[in-house]
C-alpha cells in the first residue's frame, strides 16, 4: 500500500575487530529456572573476545552475533586483550583434587624420567670423554631436583577444592565468572566481567485472579524441566522449547594505572587469580586482580618492549619474550630471575615450557624455533639459557602460538597457516597447512593476508583440562593433530580453520567473521532460491559473499589486482559480475567462487557500474558496463557461459572475451551509473555531464534514444520502475526526478534539501522510492504525493550502497544500506505488522472499556480497578475509587490493602504512583491520592517499595504535596474556631433587673464562649 512509514533496524554489521590479539570465553548458558551458571551440566558456549579501537566486543563464534560490548570511558587505544573463565566448583570435589594430584604426580614422574635420561647420557659422556670435569653433571642433577621442587611447590600452591582445602586458599581463589582484561596505550589496565541473564517469556493472563498463579506455575514447571536436563547432563541452550531469552552484559570491575609506559601485553593465569602486565619499557608486573594488589614487580635484564609472556599451568615459572628477541625466565614463587638469554634477533611471538619444566621453547619473527634449557643453580644468581636445538621454519613468521609443548601453530606474512609437531630429539613435522590464497601473489595482496593473531578453538583459558566442542564441556582432551584455529589477518577478518575432510594434511576455511568492512561501495542481493544472500563490495580487491544475516562470510571472490568498485548478480544467482580499478570486467561462478570470464580491452579507466539485462536465458545474457573513460560497453556473456556448461570437460582456464557492442564518448565526462529496463528495451546512463542518456537495444546493438536534461549537477544513480515506463534519476543537486519513457519529459521532481542523493531504488510495486544521501540519511518517498513519508539518520557518512529485498511470500521489505562509515544496516518495513497491532490493540481496548463499564454498573470495583489500571486510564481509575469509597469506604480500604495492591508488579505500581502524583497536585483529588498512599504503605514493606524503578522521582513530589495538603487542612481547622466565636458573639444580652456596673457573684457569672472554652480546655 502507498504511504508506508513504519521502518526499524533489523540488524547491523558494525566494525568489531581492528587487528591485535584474540581471546575466548566459555560463557554459561543459564537455565530458565535460575540465573546461576551451569558448568556442572556442561551448558556453555565458546565466544570470541576482540577489540576494535577503544571497544571490547564479545562475539558468538557460530553466527558472528555481538553479544555485548564495552567502550572505554576515555578516548584510548586497546593494545592487547586476554580473557579467562573461572568455573564454579562442581559437586565432584574429590575427583578434581585427585585429578590435580595425578597431574602434578605426572610432572614429577616426567622430571624423574628426565633425570634418569640425563644421568645416562652424562655417564656415557664420561666413558667417552674421560678426565672431564663433572660440573655439567652436578648442574643438571641440581636442575632436575629443582624442577621436582617446583612441581611440589606448585602442587602445594594450587587451589584444591577438596576437603583439605583451607579457608584462606578459598578466599584467595578467583570468584566464578568470565573476565576480560585489556591493556591500553594510556598506561591503563581494565578488568571487565561478562554476565548472562535469563528473561522468561511473558505468559498471557487468562483472568485477573489467575494471572500471578499461572506465572508462578510456569516458572515452577520450567525449573523442574531444567533440573531434569541438568541431571541427565544434556545441553540446555538459550533456544529451547520455552524460548527464553538470554541477555549478556559486560561491566567494568576495576581499572588502574599499571606502568609508566604503554601496556603491550596482558595475560591471565589459568586459575584467573593473577594478571600479568608487560609494558613497552620492559617491566613486568603481576597483579592479584580480585584482591587488587601487586604481587610481583619483575625487572628484565633488558628494557625492550614486552612482546609475549608465558606462565606454566602449575604457576612455577614465568617466561617473558621481548621485541628484540630476549627470553627471560622468572621463578614465580621466589619472584626472581633464574635464566636469561637472547636466542632470537626479532620479536618473540610465543613461548611454552615442556612437561618436565626443564626447557623453554620459543619462536620469533626471525623464523627460528629455539629449544632452550634453563641452566639455573639453586641459591645463585640467574644464568643463561642453553640452546639445545634451533630450527628454521619455512614461513616468514608474523604470528605463532604453542598449543602444547608438542604442537606449534605458525601464521605467515603471506597468509599461510602451518601446524608443526615439535620434538626435542626428532625432526619437526608438518601436520597441517592452510595453502596460500589464490590472489596472494598479486601486488599488495600480502597486506591483507598478513596473519596477526592465532587462537586455538575450543580451549578457552580457565577451563583447565577441559575443552569445548559443540558447546559441551568434555574432560578428555582431543587429539592434538585435530585442533581447529581462529586466524585474524591484517584485513580485519577472523577465519575459522578446521582439518579438511578431503585432505587431512590441509586446513579449510569453514567460515569468516568480517571484523571491519572499511568503506562499503556496493551491495547486491541474490534471489531467494540461491543459497547465498548478498554480495558486498568494500574498499578492497575481494568481494565477500554472505549466506545469512550478520557478519559471517561464507565465500570470497579473489582475483582482481586493484580495488573492486561495483558488482552485479544474474537473475538466477549463478553468476556474479565485478568491475574494478584494474579496468577489468570479470564474471564469476557463485558456486565455485572462481573467475569464468574475463573481459579485456573494453575500458581504459576504472569500471564504475555494472548491470545485467532483465530477461535472461541460458544463451541470452547481456552485461552492460560504464567507466570513467566515458564509454558504454555491452558484453555478450550468455553464449560463452552456455558453451562452457555444455562442454564435456569444464575448462580450468579463464576465458577472455571482448565486448559485443559499445558506444564511445557516451557522455562528455565520467559515467557513474547504468541501469537496464525490465523489458530489455532501454539502457540508461548518467554521469558528470548532468544529463541522463537513454539507449535503445536492438539485436544486441546499442542505439541512442534521447538525452534527458534537467539536473543541475552530476547524475549519481538510476533506476527503472518495475511496473511503469518511468525512469528515476538521483543527482548531486539533491533532487530525484521521474522521467516518462513515452514522452521523454520530466514527470515529477522531489527534493527536501540540497544534500547530494547518491542511491535510489523502487519498491512496493513501483509506488515508492527509497534514497540515500551524502549525510547518511535514508528517505522514503511516496510517488503519488511527491512527499517524504519517512526518513532516518542511519549512517554518519555517505551512503554508497543501497539494495531492496522484497519477499512476497513473507510480505517483507528490507533495505540494505552501506556507507563510508563501514556499517551495513538492514532496515525492515513493519507497517503491516504495525497496522495489525494497532487494530488488535483497538479491539482489545474497546472490549476492556466495555468490561470496565459493565463492572462499574454491577458494582464489581476490584475488577474495575484492575481494568482501569491496565488500560492506563487515570480518570476512570479515580472514578472507580471515588464510587467505591462512596459506597463502602471500609471495604475499599481493606480490598486495596489486602488483595489489589500486593498483587501489582513493578510496572503497574510505578504507573499507579504516577497517577497518584498527578492526583495529589489537585486539591479536589488529593483525598483519593491519600487513600492510595495509605493503603500502599500499609500493604508493602518499605524496602519492597524502594526497589520500584524511578521511585525517588515519585516520592519527592508526593512528600512535598502531602505536606502542603496537611498544612492546608490544619489551617482550615484553625479557621473554624472563628465560626464558634462569631456564633457566640451574635447571642443577645441576657435581661436583668440589676442596675448597671453591679458586680455579680461568681455563681451568676456567665460562661465564656464555646471557642474560649475549647481553647481553655
Describe this structure in words.
Among the domains are: 17-87 and 170-202 and 236-299, Methylamine Dehydrogenase, Chain H (7 Propeller), CATH 2.130.10.10; 516-829, Methylamine Dehydrogenase, Chain H (7 Propeller); 842-969, Serine Threonine Protein Phosphatase 5, Tetratricopeptide repeat (Alpha Horseshoe), CATH 1.25.40. Mean pLDDT is 81; it is low at 32-41, 90-165, 203-242 and 1010-1017. The protein is flat. Helices cover 24% and strands 37% of the residues. The chain has 14 helices and 59 strands. With 1017 residues, the protein is of the alpha+beta class. An eight-stranded mixed beta sheet has the order 14-15-16-17-21-20-19-18, with no helix packed on it. Strands 26-29-30-31-35-34-33-32 form an eight-stranded antiparallel beta sheet, with no helix packed on it. A five-stranded mixed beta sheet has the order 36-37-38-39-43, with no helix packed on it.
